[in-house]
Structure prediction request, 314 residues.
Amino acid sequence: MRQPRPANPAVLASYAYCQSLNSQHGKTYYLATLLLPPAKRPAVHALYGFARAADDVVDTGTDVTIDERSERLERWFADAIHDPGTANRPDPSADPVPALRDTIARYEIPLHLFESFLVSMRMDLTVTGYPTYADLERYMYGSAAVIGLQMLPVLGHPGVPYDVVAPYASNLGIAFQLTNFIRDVAEDLRRGRVYLPQESLDLFDVTRDRLARGVMDGRIRRLLAHEVARAREIYRAAEPGIRLLAPESRDCIKTAFVLYGAILDEIERRDYDVLSGRITVPNRRRAAVALPGLTRAYLARHRRSPAGPTTPTS
Prediction:
């Protein structure tokens, strides 16, 4: 990692914007970031803010054609990743790009990971379903696995080779995304998409129309139980990688691991009814999971020195 450099006001404003995006739209993820040392949090917020902004480019503007949205996505991505200019961006307080570029430079995150992310964002413009899990997995590499890989330079242990921990990080990103896909079936349907493999729907004799009716039945429950079991298997494959991270990063990722897994618990507790409303983990459960780590992190920082600022300043 390169030595930190002074952050100009535009970059600081952009980091603050990314933090606000994370706190508003990724509450489970944001809670986990509070367990990181303050110096590491801005980079995580920047990566989240970039992914969120790209998602918005894809999913907004339904009054324009797919070609127009595709052109908008390509232009936005090229500007974000490949245009080195930052100082003259019009409103960094509503723009994740200056923070993202600063994070990429600080942690030397490979640009090819962002190119892979773009591939999956392009797919969201035209692809509304995936015939097999292998097809879905190719999409999730760019939309989820690379997010875990982008995080590794920020959260990883300097003594553990990247190639050793990378498969665990990829699996964890995929497990998180599968959890979201299961929970958000109804929301995704409203956008014309189904992120459960068609081969799984066929296995349990479930059609899109059946899902769109919004009425839970035995076939849909069996389908979702099958997908929950798949997600849990990937969580198990990812878990050993947590201990390979830097010690100060482990509580954050362990908390995210437990809280995302708790979404699956809630889905099962509600008999798999993801069609009548969005399932969330109760606040008391979130607090019970996060509080011990927050206490440890606070005491560790207090013993060393007062907590620093939550945006890079040096």
Q: What stands out?
A: Residues 127-305 form a domain with the Farnesyl Diphosphate Synthase fold (CATH 1.10.600.10).
